[in-house]
């Protein structure tokens, strides 16, 4: 009985209806936010293409989603930092599904250490995955999305792309790059009806910190305001095929970035110790 549904209930139905039968590609779908986004999209009747290096985890998720939701789920092993592999895999994706409606660039990782402690290989690793990989996957979908004048590119960036904090110089730089790219892309694609959204979360309870936070200091310090991956995923899915410029979570954290832009010197002076949680 639709007439008794709340505003939220009606919105959920609309999202579900919009995503039904759409082809959605998610990078880094073997765990964390990516896997949660995949579950919600499958529940909405979307066809999925799931990408990550851990093919075994992808196959488990594929089996589960197909059984629960009767949707088509393709999985491909892909290291997004290998640009030749990106071209090959996207060729196979187009051969399998024809076109892509939504690309979620989610694959990424961070290493939280002071700049002088990060190795050159780690610097290259973060930029090759978080930045070059994201751009390479985007390049693969752009020609068809522009031609069809339809599509949505969702880039998982970070609040670290807006406020750089101690011990995250390289990760933060990589996410600043993602935001710069995303903002330009949005303007380039505005006349082609292709939507572009950035997602800027604060800390989320995922395996991300197994690599990022070797000593567990950060996780301990920010435990009380860690976001649940299911919550972040729901916000991402709610934004699909809508003109959402940015998703900032939690909202209060984004206020910090606004104050930072307005009063950078003061913010760094006062905020340095508060921001030094790693
Ligand atoms: O992390 P995690 P999240 N090629 O570790 C994949 C951003 N973020 O879900 O390849 C392809 O559970 C990896 O798969 P696998 C963050 O920067 C997070 O939290 O099999 N895929 C796995 O599926 C990232 O962009 C927080 O190992 C690669 C996935 O990426 C996104 O959220 C806060 C890959 C990572 O899952 C998802 O991270 C924030 C590669 N080379 C932004 N390398 C947070 N958690 O606090 C990794 O602001 N993956």
UniProtKB/TrEMBL annotation:
Protein name: Short-subunit dehydrogenase
Domain of life: Bacteria
InterPro entries listed in its UniProt record: NAD(P)-bd_dom_sf, Sc_DH/Rdtase_CS, SDR_fam
Record organism: Neobacillus ginsengisoli
Pfam family membership, one: adh_short
Family (UniProt): Belongs to the short-chain dehydrogenases/reductases (SDR) family.
SUPFAM superfamilies: NAD(P)-binding Rossmann-fold domains
PANTHER family: DEHYDROGENASE/REDUCTASE SDR FAMILY MEMBER 7B, DEHYDROGENASE_REDUCTASE SDR FAMILY MEMBER 7B
Record's keyword annotation contains NADP: no
Entry keyword set: Oxidoreductase
